[in-house]
Amino acid sequence: MMDKYQGEKKKREAPVAKVTIGFLQEGTDQESGQPKRRRAQATLSLLAESLDEFGVEIDRTLAKMEAPSLSYFRELIQKAKPQIKRRKAIETLSFLVMALSYLFLIGYSIDAGYLLPVVIFFSVAWMFLPIVLLFSGDFRKERGSEE
Amino acid sequence: MKTMVWWWYIPLAILLLAQALWIFFDAEKRGENRWLWGLLGLLNVPSSLIVYLLVTRRKKW
To answer: Do B56 and B30 form a contact (C-beta atoms < 8 A)?
Structure first.
């Protein structure tokens, strides 16, 4: 059992030694005169030992814990299903209400003689909404892949 | 002139609403931002739908 942990410890140590931190890569430290990169690596290797110990502790604790049965997870999903359905229905209804009020407001504004503000609003929205949509999607995907 | 505008507005509003709702549901299925896409679908017809289809289906091409 201990050999397994030793092996895992060695596996973890290897990537830590290769860690480079962008802002510490170049230049020397003014206080000690050592290259910043070397100093950062020394600090990280010190941290690595305690982190490994912590990791082993977590592994041991997790090994002792019993995983809940499949029926438990099934029950959880069954319980969550009606809530999800209700939330979706509320969301759809609120979108419908919002869309109807928006269309009514646009129609009413045109009828009341506010054609120019409506045109300006449409131009601004048509220009910026696709940009917001495209960038928000990419940003979310980038964050997701980083995490 | 006023009545003519209103007559034109009703089918246009129905079309916009149908388009926005379809985009809203489809974006939900695809895991996209459904509220923003739905709002885009309310702006005009059919360029919003074309933009939506181009953006969401481009991975398959």
So the answer is: yes
